[in-house]
Fold this sequence. Notes:
This protein is α+β, with helices and mostly antiparallel strands and 256 residues long.
Amino acid sequence: MDESTAPPDGLPADRAESTSDPESPADVVDPTTHGAGIGLDRRTFIATGIAAGLPYVVGDHRKWGSLTGGAEHFGGAPEGTTVGPAAVPIELVINGASHYMRLEPRVTLLDALRDYAGLTGTKKGCDQGQCGACTVHVGGVRVLSCLTLAMSVRGKPVTTVEGLARGNTLHPMQQAFVDHDALQCGYCTPGQLMSAVALLHEPCGPADADVQECLSGNICRCGAYPNIVAAVQEVRRNHSSMHSAAISPLAPSRRS
Ligand code: FES
Ligand code: FES
């Protein structure tokens, strides 16, 4: 069984520090060398910071429904109970398959996809919501995964670039990108593809300029824009004669 699809108990090695025993002497910093003069050790400082910042992270949890409830996923925590900031078990449905992982509530969907689910097709460009390289679909709507907390998409189908093709058959948009040579280095391409596929179901004018506007959140440093627009327009022209299932990456229901 794929490790990422099995209910794991541990975190990746590079996140091991986040699960270290908070009572460990190594976690307590000598106030004479750190924070000297203000009487704070590291543990106290972090705990104070978390207490101050957590309400902003949690927000209206009853509406957001991500950090709370779901007793089966959060170790039996009753509805309305705030969980975290330590890692908690979570199930994400990505490309129709369930992925079980332990995440701190602060982990973004982008990092969850790449570092925990092992789906590295989604790229990290700026990590600040500026470039579009991290674009994925959540519930069929494109989102910037670097600005989306993984906890907030629990229970919603997530589609990444790995979920566009059906077996060995490329999604029509992928095929059009190939046919129009709509890439050079390819780093932006997964995000461009996810935005382009979402665009097919969005209100977007018919002109090339309209497509440019609709894809303006996706930056291509190689300047492949004319070819990208040509690829998108070709798929749009064929859209009316194409069965809707052919341009929908995945049905919302689970594939496996
Ligand atoms: S990595 Fe998310 S917008 Fe750039
Ligand atoms: S193909 Fe290189 S950044 Fe777009």
